[in-house]
Amino acid sequence: MNDREQKIDTYVGTWNEPDLEARHVLIEQAWTADGVYHAPAVEAKGHREISDNVARIRRKYPNRVFCRTSEVFLHKNRARYTWAMLDLAGSATIAGVDYALFAEDGRLRRVHCVYDRKPRVDEAVA
What is the pLDDT along the chain (126 residues), one digit of tens a residue? Predict the structure, then answer.
């Protein structure tokens, strides 16, 4: 596994980390301080907003596991991979493709999320 794949897997791990401090450490490892996460419903800028967005999704969809579902396809300072947020039965609540841009230091500068599968109304708790 190369360093960029490791940064992506660290980022993916942030979605599964319930502890705020531990999640912040992972975010600092994976993201630049000015990193931006773009998704259809949110734009989170910087470590705090990225962490707040993860916490929001964890509250909205409890008991889910976020995982990378493809290899990481790298090209220069960019990457693409697929992911899913699975319920306890292994069904995808949300799934999509992330397009990542890396900074000079190898950490994530931007991630653009495109959904392949959006949740049904009955899947959200809040």
Answer: 799 999 999 999 999 999 999 999 999 999 999 999 999 989 999 999 999 999 999 999 999 999 999 999 999 999 999 999 999 999 999 999 999 999 999 999 999 999 997 766 665 554
Confirm if 95 and 82 have CB atoms less than 8 A apart: yes
pTM for this one? 0.91
**Which residues are CB-contacts of 115 (< 8 A; sequence separation ≥ 6)?**
39, 40, 94, 95, 96
Residue-wise DSSP of 26-87? HHHHHEEEEEEEEETTEEEEHHHHHHHHHHHHHHHS-S-EEEE-SPPEEETTEEEEEEEEE-
Give 40: exposed, middle or buried? Use CB within 10 Å, 0-12, 13-18, 19+.
exposed
Q: Indicate the residue type of 109.
A: R
| CATH architecture type of domain 3-119 | Roll (3.10)
Contacts of 88 (CB under 8 A, 6+ apart): 63
